[in-house]
Amino acid sequence: MKENGSDELILSDEPRNISIFGYELIREVLLPDILGKDTPEILYWAGKRLARKYSLKTIDEIIHFFSQAAWGDLTIKSEKKDELEFELISPLLVSRVKSKAEHFFQLEAGFLAQQIEYQKEAVAETFEHPVKHAQNVLFTVKWDKRDKLEK
Question: In Å, how far from its chain's centre is CA 118?
Fold first, then answer.
């Protein structure tokens, strides 16, 4: 990602490496220390906030964003009339799951909820289903067309 002259970043396909230690230090140590017991709820809200800043038009753009953000490889596992199930796979997930009794992926869940809310034009919510002994996390996004968003 690179800056475009404003506060926003532009997604880029430039190859890069990230430090797992640096990523984990911020995500698993610093943020929970600062946010305390409200960490999951605040991260969900923060994910929604990020999605508002980076409004994406398609599922493919969401998948690309996850890759660019180094959150992992996102795929659709199933799709129903008012529900999508996503799978997130990343080597970082293994270390996160092994390193802590508590682990959550609410930043990603909130981001998905807000993106799907925009795309479906209906109120959406994401539920995470972490898998403890694998490299994946499942997310179920549900929306209700009866709860239309006001434009």
Answer: 15
Q: Which of 109, 107, 125 is nearest to 27 (CA)?
A: 107
pTM given for the model: 0.81
Q: Residue 47: CB partners within 8 Å, gap ≥ 6? A: 106, 107, 108, 109, 110, 111, 112, 113, 114
- The structure tokens listed for 15 are 């190859």
Tell me the pLDDT band of 150, cut-offs 50, 70 and 90: low
DSSP structural state of residue 13:
-
Cα 90 to Cα 126: distance, rounded to the nearest angstrom: 19
Please state the domain extents for the chain.
2-148
Give per-residue pLDDT as tens, 36-52.
999 999 999 999 999 99
CATH of 2-148, one of 3.40.50.11890, 3.20.140.10, 3.20.20.70, 3.30.1380.20: 3.30.1380.20
Let me know: does 73 contact 90? Beta carbons within 8 Å: yes
What is the reported pLDDT for 62?
Answer: 98
Identify residue 111 by its one-letter amino acid code: F
**Token pair of 98 as six digits:** 């092994």
CB 66 within 8 A of CB 108: yes
